[in-house]
Design a protein that fits this description.
Elements lengths: L14 H13 L5 E2 L11 H12 L12 H15 L8 E4 L3 H11 L5 E5 L4 H9 L3 E5 L1 E3 L4 E3 L1 H7 L4 E6 L12 H13 L3 E5 L24 E6 L12 E4 L2 H14 L5 H12 L3 H22 L14 E2 L4 H6 L5 H12 L1 E2 L1 E2 L15 E4 L5 H15 L2
Parallel strand pairs: 1-12, 3-4, 3-7, 7-8, 8-9
Antiparallel strand pairs: 2-10, 5-6, 9-10, 11-14, 13-14
């Protein structure tokens, strides 16, 4: 029996393959220092857990509206709109089982087979996977490394746009490189979307993971609310990665499509989990504040330790919980072929696990620099110091 040929176009999130390799190494008796997966090893705040438990006891274990509980949708509309200077209402919100489903459902709603989609590369690998699986043409755009971090390659984006371009996927506060657009850069991108009549998916999964500068959204710029869908998730802000709770926020006609797709796919997001979301967004904010402060502390320790390694020099990003150092000098010094060879060496000689640029989309022609990504959300400060001290010895031998 043959499987569907379109499965050949379906990718995956390869960071989980790194997790599997790290787990196999740990099973052999090694203590692994996990920097590979963007999970959070902090507990979901107690008030959120208690709200979900109460909902279960109260009988919220059956079906609920496919679009989501009206109270949760209203809270998300207010939360998102207030922080971005926009007006949203319940009809602009479709609750989802996590942020990830927003990507595929958005493309189903606005992209026809053969349409071209601009997406960040390196970037979250599910963009590339879903575009191609659904019959679109994936057009990657990249970043330019600067002394302060990473800027969008706007010239490359402009050059990629043609009459078949239909969609722009934009991930400010970016995974994997932590890139944060300036006002001028965001305005330039919005002007391109308006000029070429593009739909925009604004992936704002890390909008609330901010350590200094206030967050900004491209959707707040004139003319963008009408053509944009925001990917919203509770995973990062509330340490709820495994709860699977997110939402799509956008123009009502496209949100109605999301709701119809919900009914076809999962019927509804888990009923009692939505009550956890109501408490998370509308309740006590001390838990999220404590999570953010812990992440800030880990970031600072991680940046200091990485900058102590010969061949690495990075700035502390103001957002996300990722660091993306250029390790080209180290790869060359050790006589290795690429960053994946460096990754294998680090795991087996230093017990340190991380992802590389190769886990975030297919490399584009002409790429010559080597990068690795550290996620500090799933490792305690003590182990950050211990693990990166071991990595320093491994990289400087």
């Amino acid at each position: 029996m043959k499987l569907a040929s379109q499965l050949n176009r379906l990718g995956t999130e390869t960071a989980f393959a790194v997790s599997a390799a790290a787990a196999q190494w740990a099973e052999k008796g090694h203590k692994v220092y996990p920097f590979h997966l963007g999970d959070i090893n902090l507990p979901t705040p107690a008030n959120i857990v208690e709200a979900s438990q109460k909902a279960i006891v109260d009988g919220a274990t059956g079906y609920c509206p496919g679009a989501g509980l009206p109270e949760l949708r209203a809270l998300i509309a207010d939360d998102v709109g207030r922080k971005r200077g926009l007006l949203y209402h319940t009809g602009n919100v479709s609750v989802q089982p996590g942020g990830k489903p927003v990507i595929g459902k958005f493309l189903q709603a606005v992209m026809n087979p053969g349409d071209e989609v601009l997406y960040p590369n390196p970037g979250y690998p599910i963009y590339e996977s879903q575009i191609e699986y659904q019959g679109g043409v994936a057009r990657p755009y990249g970043y330019l490394e600067t002394a302060e971090g990473f800027d969008l390659d706007l010239d490359a984006i402009r050059a990629s746009i043609n009459p078949r371009t239909r969609v722009l996927i934009y991930n400010n506060y970016q995974n994997p490189n932590g890139a944060q657009s300036s006002e001028a850069e965001m305005q330039a991108l919005a002007e391109l979307a308006l000029k070429h009549d593009l739909w925009v998916l604004s992936d704002e999964a890390y909008y609330e993971i901010q350590y200094g500068k206030p967050a900004h959204s491209i959707v707040s710029l004139p003319g963008m609310q009408e053509r944009s869908v925001i990917l919203y998730t509770c995973s990062k802000r509330f340490a709820m990665t495994g709860w699977r709770l997110g939402a799509a926020i956008g123009p009502e006609p496209v949100i109605e499509v999301f709701n119809k797709l919900n009914t076809n796919a999962e019927s509804c997001t888990a009923h009692f989990v939505q009550y956890a979301g109501i408490e998370a967004i509308g309740g006590d904010d001390r838990g999220p504040s404590a999570i953010l402060e812990t992440l800030r502390e880990r970031r600072d320790v991680c940046v200091h330790a990485l900058n102590a390694i010969d061949g690495i020099q990075i700035q502390a990003p103001d957002s996300t919980f990722y660091l993306y150092p250029n390790v080209t000098k180290i790869v060359e010094r050790l006589g290795l072929t690429d960053a994946n060879a460096l990754m294998d060496k680090a795991l087996h000689e230093a017990n340190v696990s991380f992802c590389t640029r190769l886990h975030f989309g297919r490399p584009t022609p002409g790429e010559s620099e080597h990068y690795i990504r550290f996620a500090y959300s799933g490792i305690d400060t003590k182990d950050i110091k211990e693990g990166l001290a071991r990595l320093k010895l491994c990289f400087e031998q």
